[in-house]
Amino acid sequence: MAYSCVMPTKTDHGDIGDVEPLADSTANQARRVVAAYANDADECRVFLSMLGIGPAKPEN
Fold it and tell me: What superkingdom heads the lineage (predicted)?
């Protein structure tokens, strides 16, 4: 699915220091909901990345 409008990247991160880390159970539940509504695996990866709950990258 191609997206017809492209939004510019938000550069103002605000006061991110006040944000608490997401609980693992909450992140897992959010991943399941996103996976259920995504049209395909690529869309799911994009949405998870946007939410900041995508798969962890292995450390080298």
Answer: Bacteria
Q: Which residue has the higher pLDDT, 59 or 51?
A: 51
Measured between alpha carbons, how far is 28 from 22 in angstroms, rounded to an integer?
10
The Cα 3–Cα 47 span in angstroms is 13
**pTM of the predicted structure, to 2 decimals:** 0.59
Report phi then psi at 54, rounded to 5: -70, 175
Q: What is the pLDDT of residues 10-40, one digit of tens each?
A: 666 666 667 777 889 999 999 999 999 999 9
Query: How far are the Cα atoms of 8, 22, 45, 46, 60 from residue 51, in angstroms, in the given order?
Result: 16, 11, 10, 9, 24
